[in-house]
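Weekly modeling sync, notes
Attendees: S.R. (lead), two postdocs, one rotation student

Agenda item 3: backlog of single-chain predictions. S.R. asked that every request posted to the team notebook include the full sequence so nobody has to chase files. The rotation student volunteered to paste the first one in as an example of the format we agreed on. Action items at the bottom.

Example entry:
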Amino acid sequence: MQPNIQVIHVDVAIIGTGTAGMGAYREAKKHTDNILLIEGGTYGTTCAKVGCMPSKLLIAAADAAHHASKTELFGVYVDTVNVNGKEVMKRIQSERNRFVSFVLESVQGFEESHKIIGFAKFQDEHTLLIDDHTQVIAKRIVIATGSRPDYPEFLTAAGNRLLTNDSLFELNDLPKSIAVFGPGVIGLELGQALSRLGVMVKVFGRSGSVANLQDDEMRHYAEQTFNEEFYFDAKARVISTIEKENGVEVIYFNKVGKKVTELFQYVLAATGRKANVDQLGLENTSIVLDEKDSPIFDELTLQTSVDHIFVAGDANNTLTLLHEAADDGKVAGSNAGSYPVIAQGQRRAPLSVVFTEPQVASVGLSLKEVKNHYSGQKDSAYVVGQVSFEEQGRSRVIGKNKGMLKIYADKYSGNFLGGEMFGPAAEHIGHLLAWARQQEMTIQKMLTMPFYHPVIEEGLRTALRDTQSQLSLEHNDIEEFIMTYDNVIQLVV
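Predicted structure, as returned to the notebook:
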């Protein structure tokens, strides 16, 4: 050991102070006061600093500009809509800093003796070296180190004009033009928002993926819809990106196969995120890693293959969502605190939302998971009900009638399995479906729930009825009751 190295013995060491790390700290502290929270960077969560909150601020500004310029449908005419890019970015940064301040207040409320600054690296399965100043010997360890943007090597040629969602929100003004690589959640949210604020945007994908949609019909529909606003090629062939004096030169083949050389002010890499575990010295432990070099872990206990080491949040590279990170932190922290007594955490129904317009929501089992679950059976034992929002009443009233919803259910039990939506109010309908999935409701039971008129949620009822009509006949005996119930409600209205 080096001279002047401080040695600390603790019951629980938590690496990282993001959403998962803070949750782990609070839970572990219920079991022991001999605890240490280690931060290698600056305090503040990914969500508050560079993720969900600043992106939603950008989207809010974009929606205001877009809707103000699309009023002719209602017989309302707006002469001009002027976007002040500097003011847009100023508000984003101001509100972002406000959200971060709430996180900082939480961290400041933690006991000072429980916090230490520095990068942690495993020396063995119980020992961490913090920079070159402190050795921590911990009985249990929680890895909650978060994630960072990950992008292919060819984008590095964009040099100083390469942006990620970690750096985009630091701009003082909106860019004039930007090439977005990655049509996932981040790429499409930010790409559409920037386009609506007057930025010339082109979005390039590679695999054909669109906002992580699983259904082929819905994915094609979404790609066509986005192309009505900005250039989007989900299967683009990009040759190179090269930084120039006044921008980034992107060479690609367009949709008709023509080679194009185009200059953009910036390139945005939105091709995914990578767990921050590669610099932790995991090779000094016997933790088993997956093909992405992330720790393999038990999804219910958050234990790795080394049973006193837990992994939570983005660091486990599974569900990189704030609410999942919070849940992970609670489970990992509680188990680290109570070890060797270990409890399984209650997992919520899977739910993800993409805040584009139309929005995207995925709930429960994906279509791929449903197909895999029922594979090998002679007859299809699941059904798919659906609805289009193009003619849905409330959607047409407000001029947001693009999209569709599909519902997956077991053909014989009527159990609701999952659903996918590209359409209006998907963030709200997604929550209703997630609650139904978590309560293990059947399609029949879901149809007995109230639906007000006129609301977009009536589209959900239409999809549920379509699903109900495909269930085996012996489980349709509730249909008469549902129709009678609806008729009574309509008479009351």
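Discussion: group reviewed the output briefly. The first strand starts at residue 6 and ends at 15.
Action items: rotation student to repeat for the remaining queue; S.R. to check formatting next week.
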